[in-house]
Amino acid sequence: MKSRLKKTKRETKETYAIEVNHVTKYFKVYYDKPQTLKERLTFHNKNKIEKRVILDDVNLKIKKGETVALIGVNGSGKSTLLKLMTKIIYPSSGEIVTHGKLTSLLELGAGFHPDFTGRENIYFNASIFGLSRTEIENRIDKIIEFSELGEIIDNPVRTYSSGQYMRLAFSVAINVDAEILLIDEILAVGDQHFQEKCFN
After folding, report:
1. Is 143:167 a contact under the CB 8 Å cutoff?
2. 110: domain range?
3. Are residues 110 and 79 in the same domain?
4. Is residue 189 over pLDDT 60?
5. Spatial distance between the Cα atoms of 93 and 5, rounded to a whole number of angstroms
6. Rg of the Cα trace of the chain?
7. Across the chain, what does the average pLDDT equal?
8. What pTM did the predictor assign?
9. What Cα–Cα distance (Å) separates residue 32 from each residue in 26, 27, 35, 38, 52?
10. Domain of 189: which CATH number?
11. Using alpha carbons only, what angle is made at residue 91 by residues 63 and 166, rounded to the nearest 5 degrees?
12. Fewest CB within 10 angstroms: 25, 34, 39, 44, which?
């Protein structure tokens, strides 16, 4: 029985990159206690804590090598699920298991210092992802080439447009040996040419 369980776990680890098992996420919304008579009459039911459910018993298995898109209306919990996968936040119940090194592009500018140049931020950001200085130096030309930023790579990133920021962030992310790459709507700020290049 034990050997069968071990075999099942090993097969699961080899097959799946991400497993989302019965995940529920809710946030507590705190309402201020009414201070005046008018507020008490108007907001008589708001002096309480409300539980707002964002995700309810979500189950998802993503195989290694698969590309999966989360589609839904604004506020449906797509970004929340991605943050749960990256462990920025944690589920209220259930579990998420990832098999492999994970990197993410969820918010534009996250992991970059606005006063550093693009080149300096490559070192800064890639080191956050676990690369040594030698590894970064071996890959920096490839990162800059993919970003197509040219001479502005040596300008402070606070002078970059949203599209240029995205180019730099994506170019670093795909060169840090990650097995799992999670992307929110960050690619939406890029031009069509670079978007197609990223998807390819």
Report:
1. no
2. 105-199
3. no
4. yes
5. 24
6. 21
7. 86
8. 0.74
9. 19, 16, 9, 14, 16
10. 3.40.50.300
11. 65
12. 44
